[in-house]
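hi! just following up on the protien thing from before. the input was this:
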Amino acid sequence: MPHNIIEYSSELEPHIQEIIKAVHLGSLNAALFDEQDIKTRALAYQHAKLGQDSRFFIHVQAKLLSGRSPEQKTLLSQAILKQLSKLGLSAISLTVEILDIDKNSYAKQVVHV
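and the predicted 3d structure came back as:
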C-alpha cells in the first residue's frame, strides 16, 4: 500500500511518466511506506469537462488499508500534491483523494512464474 490510481486528461500523455514518478515519489516522501509496497498506475480520460480556469486535470486516488490516522492521510495527500506541483504544468487542476480499503475484505495473491 498505497495503491495510487492516477486519472488524467489524455492531452497530458507526453508527461505521464513524469506524473507517475511524481506520485510515486510523493508517496515515498510521506515516510509511511517502504518503496516496494507503493503501487502506482494511470488511466487517461479522453473526454472531460472542467471549470473555466483549467484545461487539464490530474486526480490521484491513494487507496490505503484502513487504520491510518487523519494526520497520516493528510501527510500523504500533501506530499503527493507537492510533487505534482513541482512538474510545472499549467492550466491544470491537481487533486488528491485518500481512500480506505477495508482490511477485513481485502484479498491479495501474488502469482510467480
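The longest strand covers residues 56-65.
The chain has two helices and four strands.
cheers
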